[in-house]
Amino acid sequence: MSERDTSHHAQQHERPKSPSPAAYAWVLAVLMALLALTAGAHYLPIGPLGLIVAMLIAVTKAALVAAVFMHLRYESGVIRLFGLAGVFWLAILVCLTLADYLTRF
Amino acid sequence: MSDTSTATPSPPVAHHFEDAQQQHHAAGLGMWTFLVTEVLFFGGLFTAYIVYRMLHPEAFAEASHHLYRTIGLINTAVLLVSSFFVALAVHAAAHNAKRMLVWTLSATVLLAVVFLGLKTLEYVLDIHDRILPGPLFNGEMFTQPGHAELFFVLYWFMTGLHALHVSVGIAVLGTLTVRAWWAWRTGTTAHLRNVTEMTGLYWHFVDIVWIFLYPLLYLVR
Questions:
Q1: How far is it, in rounded angstroms, from Cα A26 to Cα B12?
Q2: Which of A89, B4, B105, B168 has the most CB atoms less than 10 A away?
Q3: What is the pTM of this model?
């Protein structure tokens, strides 16, 4: 492999769009704020809405970790597809199970 | 970092790969495939949780109040910070910042050990509180003892499977830390780039599982 080829590959491999340590620090700050929000919202008198709020926050936190920490935001289409496949198959598992339990009278 | 060399050396390429980029893609795709199977591994327990919470909401809320909410909160924070450190480690490995790699990996291992230590303390307190399902279980504390016990079965299995993953993480991250330290002493850490990134993905997954476990187990009302 020629010198030019090596540097070309190294450059491609670098993927300049991957996040900086400063971006990671920001994401951590947001994650901590969301955690405080989850813990705090538990004591609000919002009844069954509390579960929806807690789950929305958890999904947001998981999405942040996956997108930035796990680089999913910057990955190729096929790896994003694999990531989404996990969510999709989990949805099938939950939905079909509930389709049974929720229709038993 | 001061120890970042200006020209980042390329990682070594195994003979069955065309180049470093293909090797990196193959590793990433393999790791994500494994993580999808892990999502479904935990998914079975989450599905069971959803069904039984739906059937017995009051019993689950009552049982959840017997867990140590503060330990759960601290442990969530510990894992989030550890995820941040392993993300920095991946950054350090990609830029051949050797000292940063060793320190960020060490911090991750330390936080993982803190998590497991707090979880062990919590388990001891739980057993003392007699909320371990089985012969030690004290049903008299609950209005629906059987359904409360069901909640604790899910609590022990879900946190137990998660703790097993944390233990594996400590072993893998610990080995990697030693390798990174040795590589720092002897030269380049370029060959640790892929393994650091894949270990990082695993550790972030463990973090994500706990992000859901914390509100589902500790914050039921």
A1: 33
A2: B105
A3: 0.91
